[in-house]
Amino acid sequence: EVQLVESGGGLVQPGGSLRLSCAASGFTVSSSFMSWVRQAPGKGLEWVSVIYSGGDTYYPDSVKGRFTISRHNSMNMLYLQMNSLRAEDTAVYYCARTSYYGSGRYYFDYWGQGTLVTVSS
Amino acid sequence: DIQMTQSPSSLSASVGDRVTITCRASQSISSYLNWYQQKPGKAPKLLIYVASSLQSGVPPRFSGSGSGTDFSLTISSLQPEDFATYYCQQSYSFPWTFGQGTKVEIK
């Protein structure tokens, strides 16, 4: 059974840093595509990052240069290092397995329960 | 960036109703379109991928259609557990983007 469990959220001051973790089971992170998706309180969903099985990473402009997605293959873990945090980064952060259908078509087929990050002084 | 616009933003319907939600992309995205369901306080759940493929375990009352810029999600007979918010999402190009959501409420 595929399971994803996030941790590491909490309260951080503007300009601070936080590292989120996602523990995966039931599949191998290193041979999968994995993403982070966030949701600000009362708002919609926003894709934050993806790491391909080959190691390539992509980000939207809103977090590029501040956030870094990575993985630990032997521990089957996914991470999101968040630096220079801003109030607008306040959200629930979900890790999601990202399946590949072919011809560049991807979808998020399994999601964790989310971890709340609050950026406030 | 590709903008995804859902309509309506919310709707009220009764159990047994046929419900259709539409999603329009700001440019052609072929069939690079997925649909998710989210209930309050829960993670999103994949319903439909690549526009019309039903995710394993999802009831067949859910269906998706469309290609290019216009897509739809249809619930053939609304059930009590279907009251939720629904999102479309494109993977045609980075940044991957979601629609703003459609909240389906009980009439």
Strand content of chain B: over 45%
**pLDDT averaged over residues of chain B:** 97
Structural class of chain B: mainly beta
Please tell me what the overall shape of chain B is.
globular
Number of strands of chain B: 11
Q: In whole angstroms, how far apart are the ends of chain B?
A: 36 Å
Strand content of chain A: over 45%
Strand pairing plus helix content of chain A: what structural class?
A: mainly beta
Radius of gyration of chain B: 13 Å
- The overall pLDDT of chain A, averaged over residues, is 97
The succession of helices and strands of chain B, N to C, reads EEEEEEEEEEE
Radius of gyration of chain A, in Å, reads 14 Å
Brief rundown of the structure:
The complex is a heterodimer of chains A (121) and B (107). The mean pLDDT of chain A is 97.
Would you spell out the secondary-structure blueprint of this structure?
The complex is a heterodimer of chains A (121) and B (107).
Chain A: E1 3-7, E2 10-12, E3 18-25, E4 33-39, E5 45-51, E6 57-58, E7 67-72, E8 77-82, E9 91-102, E10 105-111, E11 115-119
Parallel strand pairs in A: 2-11
Antiparallel strand pairs in A: 1-3, 3-8, 4-5, 4-9, 5-6, 7-8, 9-10, 9-11
Chain B: E1 4-7, E2 10-13, E3 19-25, E4 33-38, E5 45-49, E6 53-54, E7 62-67, E8 70-75, E9 85-90, E10 97-98, E11 102-106
Structure description:
The complex is a heterodimer of chains A (121) and B (107). With 121 residues, chain A is mainly beta. Chain A has strands spanning 3-7, 10-12, 18-25, 33-39, 45-51, 57-58, 67-72, 77-82, 91-102, 105-111, 115-119. In chain A, strands 2, 4, 5, 6, 9, 10 and 11 form a seven-stranded mixed sheet that branches. Chain A has a four-stranded antiparallel sheet with strand order 1-3-8-7, with no helix packed on it. In chain A, a hairpin with a 4-residue loop joins strand 7 and strand 8 (77-82). The termini of chain A are far apart. The mean pLDDT of chain A is 97. Chain B has strands at residues 4-7, 10-13, 19-25, 33-38, 45-49, 53-54, 62-67, 70-75, 85-90, 97-98, 102-106. Chain B is globular, with a radius of gyration of 13 Å. The N and C termini of chain B lie far apart (36 Å).
